[in-house]
What does this fold into?
Amino acid sequence: MSEITLSKEKLEFLRNLLISRDPGPITFYPINVVQLSTRGENHNFTPIAMPVSGSLYPLEKDKIFRFYMDGLIFRFFCGNHDEFSVRKLGNTTVGYSDELHISLVDYYNSFQKSKFGKNAKNI
It folds into this structure.
């Protein structure tokens, strides 16, 4: 069973956004991106849900959904957010402005390496 589930209401909201080609409000699942800057053993993993921690994350009351795609990690912040909380993430938030700041992390110092290591299997 997947760690990531959405309510029927949120699924319907997402469906309507897709149908209308509307990106929706930036406060609905704000997203930031991390790039693994070095090639490690594995770069693709099953999406996971996890708590947010650390002073760099103003939305830490919530959890994030982590999606892995060929060395890019997309972090969807779950919960209810207002413009002020998203503004704290600034240009690290997809769609916040015309610029996108992406964090670079060395694979060998990454969450993926520490959590999954050599036991991980590519999907």
